[in-house]
């Protein structure tokens, strides 16, 4: 159903809920709480250059990465708001080792996995960063949720999305009925529909990968990227390289103008043989959005990301995602 541009995200959420007689309003409430958290984070991120929010907090997270002050602020903002929302029974965050319980008496029927501020290494250089979230239905019957409620594959996702804090703040999400983008008007504090029913162009001549890792890749990956750069104007090669180093920003470009983003396995760090991106709150939600928009998301050995059941909260997975035909061509090249 074509919506008038400019409707608010709350109108979109409520209209979507009204299409489902069984809906109790809890998912709508969950999304609404996440949106409040996003506005809070957006205000802080956009003031970071002026406040003392820039710089590191002196702590390190489970990934062994320096926790930036804005990381910590974003993590706490989401965690505190969602713990008392009454819509979820358990959470997990990129910034925390284990599962995050909710407030006693506030247990709901969903679970939340999130990366509070992805791309944080770019905070101090004013590059777009973002928040990524994924929502499943709980498996356990009641009370506080547990790790099994969280370790679910992307093909069981109820909703997923991201906020991108860039030249403007956008919310892009899907509840399984297409992908819609909303842009924040900070003067009124509302997200307005700006990109309805986003579709990833089937083909596109952009590729996005950190070529600094080239010599650590498998030979097939090196050959594939070499192929994209060889001159064959009849087939539109060489492709143009675009790499920001912030997953939300690189993925958002992919979603809007098409292309292929890759973070493959590499031998650079023996502790991270499957690349750098985490399955539960990076690859899986982005794969859900990509497929909802007509794209595709695989590992570099051709496994569909949405079919992978996580075994640990922070497990990493190689990611090849974007325009369907580009990902299929890459798959042929890598595993044909
Ligand atoms: P590299 C940011 O730290 C992040 O997790 C993703 O947002 C981004 O896609 C990736 O790392 C960039 O990693 O190794 O290319 O710097």
Automatic annotation (TrEMBL):
Pathway: Carbohydrate biosynthesis; Calvin cycle. Keywords: Carbohydrate metabolism, Cytoplasm, Hydrolase, Magnesium, Metal-binding. GO terms for biological process: fructose 1,6-bisphosphate metabolic process; fructose 6-phosphate metabolic process; fructose metabolic process; gluconeogenesis; sucrose biosynthetic process. It is found in: Cytoplasm. It comes from Candidatus Desulfatifera sulfidica. Homotetramer. Mg(2+) 1 binds at residues 94, 115, 117. Residues 200-334 form the Fructose-1-6-bisphosphatase class 1 C-terminal domain. NCBIfam families: PRK09293.1-1, PRK09293.1-3. This is Fructose-1,6-bisphosphatase class 1. Its EC number is 3.1.3.11.
């Amino acid at each position: 159903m074509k919506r008038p541009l400019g409707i608010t995200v709350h109108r979109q959420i409520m209209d979507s809920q009204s299409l489902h007689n069984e809906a109790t309003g809890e998912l709508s409430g969950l999304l609404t709480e996440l949106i409040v958290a996003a506005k809070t984070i957006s205000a802080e991120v956009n003031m970071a250059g002026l406040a003392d929010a820039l710089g590191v907090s002196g702590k390190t997270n489970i990934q062994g990465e320096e926790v930036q002050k804005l990381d910590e602020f974003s993590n706490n903002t989401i965690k505190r708001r969602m713990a008392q929302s009454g819509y979820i029974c358990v959470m997990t965050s990129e910034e925390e080792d284990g599962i995050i319980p909710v407030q006693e008496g506030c247990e709901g029927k969903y679970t939340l996995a999130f990366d509070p501020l992805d791309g944080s290494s770019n905070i101090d250089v004013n590059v777009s960063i973002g928040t990524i979230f994924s929502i499943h239905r709980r498996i356990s019957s009641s009370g506080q949720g547990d790790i099994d409620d969280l370790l679910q594959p992307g093909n069981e996702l109820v909703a997923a999305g991201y906020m991108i804090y860039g030249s403007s703040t956008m919310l892009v999400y899907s509840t399984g009925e297409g992908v819609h983008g909303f842009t924040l008007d900070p003067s009124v504090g509302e997200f307005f529909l700006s990109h309805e029913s986003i579709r990833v162009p089937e083909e596109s001549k952009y590729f996005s990968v950190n070529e600094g890792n080239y010599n650590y890749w498998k030979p097939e990956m090196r050959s594939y990227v070499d192929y994209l750069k060889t001159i064959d104007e009849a087939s539109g090669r060489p492709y143009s390289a675009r790499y920001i180093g912030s997953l939300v920003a690189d993925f958002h470009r992919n979603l809007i103008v098409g292309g292929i983003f890759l973070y493959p396995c590499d031998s650079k760090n023996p502790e991270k043989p499957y690349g750098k991106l985490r399955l539960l709150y990076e690859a899986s939600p982005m794969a859900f959005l990509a497929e909802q928009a007509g794209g595709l998301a695989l590992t570099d050995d051709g496994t569909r990301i949405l079919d992978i059941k996580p075994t640990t909260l922070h497990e990493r997975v190689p990611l090849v995602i974007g325009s369907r035909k580009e990902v299929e061509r890459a798959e042929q090249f890598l595993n044909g």
